Automatic annotation (TrEMBL):
This is histidine kinase. Pfam families: HATPase_c. Residues 359-565 form the Histidine kinase domain. It catalyses: ATP + protein L-histidine = ADP + protein N-phospho-L-histidine. GO terms for cellular component: plasma membrane. InterPro entries: 2C_sensor_his_kinase, HATPase_C_sf, HATPase_dom, His_kinase_dom, HisK_dim/P_dom, PAS, PAS-like_dom_sf, Sig_transdc_His_kin-like_C. Its EC number is 2.7.13.3. Signal peptide: none annotated. The keyword Kinase applies. GO terms for molecular function: ATP binding; phosphorelay sensor kinase activity. The chain crosses the membrane at residues 7-26, 38-57, 64-83, 95-117, 156-177, 183-202, 214-239.
Amino acid sequence: MAIELLTVARVLAGASGVALLVAAAWTRSAWRAPSARSFSVLIGLLGTSALALAAVAPNRPAYSVVWLLTLLAIPVAFGAFALDYYGLDLVTTPWRLAAFALPAVAAGGSGVAYHLLRPPSMGTGMGGGTGMMGPAPPGLSPLALDLLVAVREVGLYYASGVIFVAVALVVGTVVQYDHLGPGVVVTLSFLGVWQWGGYLLMPEVMAATDYATALALIGGCYAVSVVAVGTVAGVGGLFETLPAAGTVGSRTALDSLDDPMLTVDDSGTVLCANEAACRTFDPSRAVGSPLERVVGVDIGTLRERDRLSLETTEGSRWFQPGLSAVAGRGDIRLGTVIVLRDVTRRRTREQRLQVLSRVLRHNLRNDMNVIRGNAELITDGAGIDPSTGAEQIRRTADELVELGERAREVERMMSFEEHPEPAVDVAATVETAVSAVGERYPAVEVTTAVPADSTLPVDGRVLRVVLENVIENACQHNDADEPIVVVSADRSEDRFRLAVSDNGPGIPEMERSVIAAGTEDPLEHSTGLGLWAVEWGVTRLGGELSFADNEPRGAVVRIDLPTGEP
């Protein structure tokens, strides 16, 4: 009778194993989701263990090895499936998966080694729980036995912990998504848990009946596994909707945002940062650091300012901060979500429109009035020397032409397609700008003091336009008996400073304050486009523009540019 029952158990296990392997192959080919692949591995391992059981059932020591490996492999596969199904990318790379499975693999290796060394006279080693495996086999020291046992026990405890976590993830997924019924929880949990139930109950079953009956029950569990797989993967539509999309989707949405987004707690510590934030600011400081260390200002400053300039990995940029409170249960404030929208281009465009409006309204109108007035005086012959009036008309017209050329140059500079150059030769760019301006102002002595090996990761076309405007401004307005302009450079760890110094009358305070404020009004405005062209070009390069007085006379225009170094 026992032999017949053992045969039934082997046939049942073998048939179930074949059915599970077929289901694994079908799942693998029918669904592309990562969780479907890990589910196919899970049921493939179940099928393999069922076939192994059918093959070695009469040999109780060999069966003990198969059963140990099953107890270690199924929890790891079930845990990987639960993580994929929920959408946690903890085992998405081969190295992570290897680390996840390592305790179970080590425990399996120690168990196999013990059973290979164990002579048949020492028994089968079967039993529930995680107790000792018996006395040391001949030739194996007690220390080596203790090591094998310790590795085995750690692996079994690890596998049991993985089972609990996996079941919790499955339960959490079903609770979170209404379309998954409680039957899915029971069915999926059965696939991953019943081996442990059998492991714990095996001694009691064998004590009450016999070995063949215990194996028949295990074979029946494999048959129920076939039904469970068909229920959840077929009828239940386990992979027709993927809960991982809800978990991964929100994370993907945050990382797909072009705007930096950070989450901070009430103490101002950054808890989370999307990919844009890590790209924009120093990624080594993004998470776990105070907000002020990451972006340069505290949360109070972000709340107070509509716009502000922040240092980024690409230099200075203008941002518009948006803050939203994060509240938990009972509306308890937990932290703040900060979104920093880069408005550098928008700010520059607003400035250009404002300055162009001033040029049309003020400069163009005034100059045309001068031309018209002198033309009328010449026509009427009202006491004016025609040559003097004509010269005034010509000079004013030249100024209008120059203003138009400057406006066209600014438009061309701002319309350059962005294509970051790996390294711009700053010294060569300075020499090109000096040569272009020097031809128009031969009376001005222009010297350079820029290291020959100076390079920067900036747009060389924009840098050349900026330098030409600064140098030309210094030459054009220099009224010294011996006009001198000096272009120098100084490099530090995080910035490269270009300075253009002259011995002219200096830059009027109103011109400086308008550029520093970033806006014009009817009472305070610049007289042309030159300094605005420099400001817009430096902003596009990710730098900062500042002014200082030269000693004993003149002005210093400073251009601080990013070096591209962290």
